[in-house]
Design brief:
With about 325 residues, the protein is an alpha/beta fold. It folds into 2 domains: about 220 residues, 3-Layer(aba) Sandwich (Rossmann fold), CATH 3.40.50.300; about 80 residues, Alpha-Beta Plaits (2-Layer Sandwich). It has 10 helices and 14 strands. The strands form 3 sheets. The chain has a 6-stranded mixed beta sheet, sandwiched between helices. It has a 4-stranded antiparallel beta sheet with strand order 2-1-4-5, with helices on one face. The chain has a 4-stranded antiparallel beta sheet with strand order 12-13-11-14, with no helix packed on it. β9 and β10 form a beta hairpin. The longest helix has 16 residues. It is elongated. About 30% of the residues are buried. The N terminus is likely disordered.
């Protein structure tokens, strides 16, 4: 058996999910033969629409949802056989705000540390509260805080026992833009210190900014796991928008092979293309436009975002 205090071998995944399925008592099949590995020290973004299985999967790994079929290990420890050791390695920030309303911020975060058998460490609690801009609220009762402040208290509780893996399930819900930036700065610092972070978010631009790798889940199936940079390169499309000097009634038949889209006003053409296979295609388009007597006022290029890619993947998996 692996001891939770022993050094982790970073050549192995810190989280391994193998053949996991989950059916609730109602008969709803939330997960279907899920296989997933999360690497040490990465930020892994798990994306999917509502009801896709994200929260169920996180709950299984964290031990708060009973495992159905399959096996899950964290740092080589089985989540069922070695439940206490695994749970001590994990910090979880759930979607729901569940804190003791009558306790102070300091008391509730310190108590959470004790729940995992950790000795009191006021210096660590102070550091965590300061990192989350909660230090001036340390003596405030939870019930007096805003929703965004309560969310950050949940994060502080999850970090109180210095976990090796941190799960953030929609952590920025209800958090304003300024506080969100502070939170992500802290997440990056945690990653730099070696903490592995698994993130779910509906703010896909956050995943695009933060994640090292991306997984997409829908209807309980993992439909893709890919390095973010590779994913953007493989699936990202470019769009060329051409503003015309004179409006067109329709796209000339001589330009049909370019599959251009004309806007309602007739003064703008849109050309979508794959940058990997576009050698000469844009130049050929411009040449053909010139031969057709179409003059341009301006043009601009945009790249598909991770949100565009996510939407297309989910639609394809329906």
């Amino acid at each position: 058996m692996v001891n939770a205090t022993e050094p982790i071998h970073r050549t192995q995944p810190i989280i391994s999910v193998a053949g996991v399925s989950k059916t609730y008592a109602s008969g709803f099949r939330a997960l279907e033969h899920v296989d997933l590995e999360v690497r040490h020290g990465e930020i892994f973004a798990l994306l999917g629409p509502n009801g896709a299985g994200k929260t169920t999967l996180i709950g299984l790994i964290c031990g708060i949802v009973k495992l159905g079929e399959g096996r899950v290990t964290v740092a080589g420890l089985d989540i069922v056989a070695d439940y206490r050791a695994v749970r001590a390695m994990i910090g979880l920030v759930p979607q729901e705000l569940t804190t003791d309303a009558f306790e102070t911020v300091w008391a509730t975060v310190s108590f959470s540390r004790g729940l995992f058998g950790k000795r009191p460490d006021p210096a660590h609690i102070e550091k965590t509260l300061k990192a989350l801009s909660l230090w001036d609220k340390k003596d405030s009762k939870i019930m007096t805080l805003s929703g965004g402040m309560k969310r950050r208290v949940m994060i502080a509780k999850a970090l109180s026992h210095e976990p090796q893996v941190l799960f953030l399930d929609e952590p920025s819900a209800g958090v304003d833009v300024t506080l969100r930036k502070d939170m992500w700065a802290m997440v990056r610092a945690l990653r730099e210190s070696g903490v592995t972070i698994v993130l779910t978010t509906h703010y896909i631009e956050e995943a695009e900014d933060m994640a090292d790798r991306v997984g997409v889940i829908n209807h309980g199936h993992i439909i893709l796991v890919e390095d973010k940079v590779t994913l953007m390169r493989k699936l990202g499309k470019k769009q060329l928008t051409l503003q015309l000097q004179s409006p067109l009634a329709q796209v000339p038949s001589a330009l049909a092979m370019h599959h251009l889209t004309l806007n309602a006003d007739g003064n703008e053409l849109t050309y979508v293309y794959d940058p990997r296979a576009s050698q000469g295609t844009v130049a050929a388009l411009l040449d053909d436009l010139g031969r057709a007597g179409i003059k341009l006022k301006d043009l601009q290029t945009t790249q598909s975002s991770l949100e565009d890619i996510f939407v297309s993947l989910v639609e394809e998996s329906r």
